[in-house]
Amino acid sequence: MAGRMAITSKMHRDTADLVAEPGIDLAAAIEQRLEALPANVYRATTSVDAVAVDRDDKPALTLPDTLKVVAPILSRQTVGLPAVCRIFSTNTTMPMSNAYVEAKNERAGTRIKGMVHVREALRELMLGEQSERSTDFELDGKRTTLNRVYDDFVRKFGHVVSSQANRLSMSEDPEYPLLHALESDYDRGISPETAKKHGVEPRRPSVNKAAIFSKRVMSPHKEVTHVETAKDALVVSMNESGRIDLARMMRLTGKPEDELVHDLKGLIYLNPRHDRWEMADQYLTGNVKAKLRGAETAITQNPRYIENVDALRAVQPADIESVDISIQLGSTWVPDQVIDQFIGHLLGDVRRRVTYQDTLGKWLVDIEHGDRTTARVT
Fold first, then answer.
1. Cα(376)–Cα(321) distance, rounded to whole angstroms?
2. What are the sequence ranges of the domains in the chain?
């Protein structure tokens, strides 16, 4: 192994990473190991298009770039087969897996195709708004198409969100929430029969159409090349990579690292355990007692961690008396040795095996029959 496996903290969760040993260039070490592999043993697989064409029952399909697995698409190239196809795999190294949708009846099939048309028109408009090359004239045309396709669908099958039949038809589409966002504030209305019974005016069902039907709601992505302040650079770094990238922030501001750190005092902290900069709301939360012990140890080697110690001391929770602590059997934070001792206290010296599997998130407990008197008293 070129390095060692370690659990490292990311912005949202901990992940397993390959960490280089001190003084080792990880990239060079990996390259050296790759050179030791045998040469000319790789054989390219048949292309997806070729595989699809060779199949008698599943002709080649043109897949949009935005397609997600399990999403239904329209197979316009197909003759004599259902017009709606559901893609199960778009892996470019393996044959494409798909299956034709079996609609309950003709109206159900037409309903699904109509919702696919709405989704495709919405995607086209969204891609247009995100493109720097799109003109206002082109966007107006795409927006008109979306309104026309949506209004036609509503006239035939009712609103996308309100109709249970519509929801069931596209419930497996991973992009159904996108269609759901097209409507808000649904009003069921009052049917003529109900209106006559209660002596009120009838009212047709209605919804408020989303803003994208009438105006631009997205802008093209533009890379930020310069900001004035360290705080702005920090925002850009977190938005782009989810971490504090001082090298990127130095390029954005033209300021040296020491100046950036000084300007961000109280907002970022260098974690001595991972030797990595973290946001204050990440560093000053969690097991702050353990972090304080780590910072107090690190301060003996580097006085810069005095800021960490001061900040961590300010957020230390009050100690709780042992009588006020309740532990539920099966809690994942209790060491398995404690559970083992607890079983021995209750059942005596019985043969047992108690472990907690982090990867499975479950306890594994195997207890053999012990002294019957002790067990009966317990």
1. 33
2. 4-35, 52-213, 230-314, 324-377
